[in-house]
């Protein structure tokens, strides 16, 4: 897929984003200059999800490893929080993930709506 035709990943699904999805999202939030270093460090949706549990030492290690400026790290955290809050409020569309068979669309969407609040609350980044 060419760069001009890449579609940003669905925000609700950020916890299952691939490294490529994270790169597209970084472009969308004007942090595209970190796309390659995030890819080299294997930063995917699961990793982004785990950042809310990082200790200060782990945050500093991440910032050094990805050569991030503090201001950019704050933008990254704010954008993650924005996605999580939108999910919590039900503002994000729930859709079937690419790996789920079409016949399970209704079941998946119903389960995702039930789990949305508990999943997002547990991922909340503190200010």
TrEMBL record:
Q: Give this protein's Gene Ontology molecular function annotations.
A: kinase activity
Q: Pfam families given for it?
A: SAM_2
- UniProt entry keywords in alphabetical sequence: Kinase, Transferase
Domain named SAM: residues: 17-52
List, alphabetically, the Gene3D superfamilies matched: Transcription Factor, Ets-1
Query: Which SUPFAM superfamilies does the annotation name?
Result: SAM/Pointed domain
What top-level branch of life does the organism fall under? Eukaryota
Question: Cross-referenced InterPro entries, in alphabetical order?
Answer: SAM (IPR001660), SAM/pointed_sf (IPR013761)
Q: What PANTHER family does UniProt report for this protein, alphabetically?
A: STERILE ALPHA MOTIF (SAM) DOMAIN-CONTAINING PROTEIN
Q: What is this protein called?
A: Dual-specificity kinase
Q: Which organism is it from?
A: Olea europaea subsp. europaea
């Amino acid at each position: 897929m060419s760069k001009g035709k890449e579609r940003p990943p669905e925000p609700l699904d950020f916890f299952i984003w691939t490294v490529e999805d994270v790169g597209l999202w970084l472009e969308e939030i004007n942090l595209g200059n970190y796309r390659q270093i995030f890819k080299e460090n294997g930063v995917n949706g699961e990793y982004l999800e785990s950042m809310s549990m990082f200790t200060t030492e782990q945050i500093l290690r991440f910032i050094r490893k990805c050569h991030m400026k503090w201001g950019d790290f704050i933008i990254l955290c704010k954008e993650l929080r924005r996605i999580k809050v939108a999910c919590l409020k039900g503002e994000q569309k729930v859709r079937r993930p690419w790996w789920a068979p079409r016949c399970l669309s209704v079941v998946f969407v119903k389960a995702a709506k039930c789990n949305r609040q508990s999943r997002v609350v547990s991922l909340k980044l503190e200010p």
